[in-house]
Amino acid sequence: MRPLLLIFCVAGTTAVYTYAQSAMEVPGIGAIVDSLGSLRPVQGVAGSFLLGPASVMGVLSAACSEQMCLVKTDSKILSATGETDAPTGPALFGMSGDEALVFFPKVRTFARWHNDVLDPLDWEIDGEILSIRATQIAVRKDSEVSVVSSDDATIDSITDASGPVLLLPKGVVFATSDEVVLRQDDAEVRFSLAGAESITAMGPRYAAIRAGDAIYALRTDPGREGLYRLPGSAP
Amino acid sequence: MTRTILLALLLPLAARAQIALFTVNNGAEAQIVDGASLNMGKVAAGDTVSVRIRVKNIGTSPANITYFFVDGLGYTLNRPSLPFPIVPGIPQDVLLSFSESTPAPLYPANLRITSDTNSSVSAFVTATVVVGPVLTVFPVCTGSNGPPASIDFGLVQAGQVRQCNFSLRNPGTQDMTIATFKVANVTGAAFQISMGPSAPFTIPAGGAITFVVNFTPNTATSYTGSLAIETRTYVLTGAGFDTPLPTPLIEFDSGFFESAQQRLLTMRLPTAASSSASGFVNLAFLPDTTLVTDDPAVVFLVTGTRSLPFSVTKGSTLISIGGQTSAAFQTGTTSGQIRFTLSGISTAGDATTTLTIPPLSISIETAAATRRTGDLDIQVTGFDNTYLAGVMTFTFSDLSGNTLPPIHADFTQDFRTFFTRTKAGSMFQVRVSFPVTGDPSGIGSVEVQLSNSAGVQTQHLNFQ
């Protein structure tokens, strides 16, 4: 932006130039699946959201991380770089860098997604699979929710979780009958919200919570947690 | 021989029976037998009474009507020009009317129709002209002699009653018996006789009676009815209208208003609604800046739009917005005014309510500092509701905490271009890159100052 006029030296070896460049864009938060099964980008800042136009139709599941978004249609997994055949029905995604673990509830199988390739995994986990994080799985058995390893060994339990669960990199979001609970870093924040039906990874800092006709955005940044409603998410 | 004679006798009979006449009353036919009498009843002097006559060809071959007249004082026949064809299965309606101004007990006439097939029907028609009662309607209702004669009750608030006073006078020299005296409604029961005699009753010569008809509309719509008095029928008209609602109070959840909030709007009435009503609550945004004309994030959340229906039920002060007790909306990322208005409804006063969203110093949502080979990157996400961002100061420090002289940068024009291009409010994600030489790992942190017209926002970042 500015011609180099000054050079500031640090420790005699490093110079920081006053030549600064800027790049600007509308902040992206992630993506949701709307009530019509369309993938909608979400932009904005906490408390002021914009829903973008539908980009993919016939979406059953979607999840986004800092690096990428994965979209499940009836028989494929779509990414920004391509698509791959997949078992029919919805999917649970556990994003990790540029890879993801995927669970297909309809056929109860796990797989690893990377570079638009799906490698089956021979994991066998009893119970209702709720969420995946790296090699950890949140599973509901006999109304109790646990976090188990890929060999079905119990690692932790999630008390109070009677509704959907989303494992975060360093925490968990789950729903009770009338609340959404965010636990991370040994802290817990509760938000009043009845009837949560699903919780998915909207983006690196937000979870999408569907409750009835509405879709909510839960900000998960430690210390800046907040629950917001997304505009225009009613059918 | 016998067979031939029989046919010859029958032929004239068959020919005479080819044309038939019927009276039609409310769709019901009654045949007028040849030679029969047709009484058109009593008619008030100067009034007109009419009877619909239907002509049918009940034979098997077409015929032409060559004669069709009524001869008698006061009678007219409204029919097609002669001759006109009449074919089997396709009737022809005509109108027989009578009107005279002189009272008399009998006005006779002959009605006759003849076809070119020598079929004919005749009827003896009678009517009586009597002195009719004179109806007077008093304000606020108004009357018209028509035709048709009518009485208008005007506009009446739904649920309220308008009473119309009438006088019915006998102008004759003999007592007058009123056998027909009733009100009928096309829909509902808005028109009712509330005070007056019941038929039959007598009005003495030169005397009068009074009566009252109430008009009580239930809803805001037009009403029609009729008032039948002897030989006359008056059309009754009136219309209901909704009462203006007491001016609704537009209220919000408590707390200071600023950008990037999701707030609740509620509406209520200061007094109970006298009738059920519905309309729309709308919001509009007026930005302080001239750089943009709107902020698309300022919407009602339930629909993502700027208008929601509302309704209130009679007797209630609670207003339902989109079927809910409240409506959430976003305040956006632009300083200015959010104006709430009502439409589609009549209110006693203007319910417009305006919220002011004040200018803020730049709000930082996230910020990060990262090193790349040859560059130091600083990424900031936030919003500038003044649209005047751009002046930045970066103060780098080494790992020991020694600070370098601050670096000033002015990206004002870049921000202006960005804001006007994206039309997404003032939200932004900016990455500022600084070229470096040597090992950037020696840079430990940076203090970023972002300025706008409302103040300076400072963020300390450690390089990752």
Task: Sum this structure up briefly.
The complex is a heterodimer of chains A (235) and B (464). With 235 residues, chain A is an all-beta fold. Chain A has strands spanning 7-10, 14-17, 21-25, 28-33, 39-45, 48-51, 61-64, 69-72, 76-78, 83-85, 92-96, 99-104, 109-114, 117-121, 128-133, 136-141, 144-149, 154-158, 165-168, 171-175, 179-184, 187-192, 196-201, 206-211, 214-219, 226-229.
Commentary on this structure:
The complex is a heterodimer of chains A (235) and B (464). Chain A has 235 residues and is an all-beta fold. Chain A is 0% helix and 56% strand. Chain A has no helices and 26 strands. In chain A, the strands form 7 sheets. A 4-stranded antiparallel β-sheet of chain A has the order 7-8-9-10, with no helix packed on it. Chain B contains 2 helices and 36 strands. Classes of the chains: A mainly beta (235), B mainly beta (464).
Q: Which secondary-structure class do the elements of chain A indicate?
A: mainly beta
The number of E-state strands of chain A comes to: 26
Helix and strand element order of chain A = EEEEEEEEEEEEEEEEEEEEEEEEEE
- The CATH topology label of chain A is Neuraminidase
CATH homologous superfamily descriptor of chain A: TolB, C-terminal domain
Total helical elements of chain B: 2
Q: Which word captures the global form of chain B?
A: elongated
Could you say how many structural domains of chain A there are in total? 1
Which regions of chain A are unreliable across 5 or more consecutive residues at pLDDT < 50? Answer: 1-6
Give a count of the beta strands of chain B, DSSP E runs of length 2 or more. 36
Based on the structure given, which CATH architecture of the largest domain in chain B is correct?
A: Sandwich
The CATH architecture assignment of chain A turns out to be 6 Propeller
| Structural class by SSE content of chain B | mainly beta
Radius of gyration of chain B: 44 Å
Biggest β-sheet strands, sense, barrel of chain A? 4 strands, antiparallel
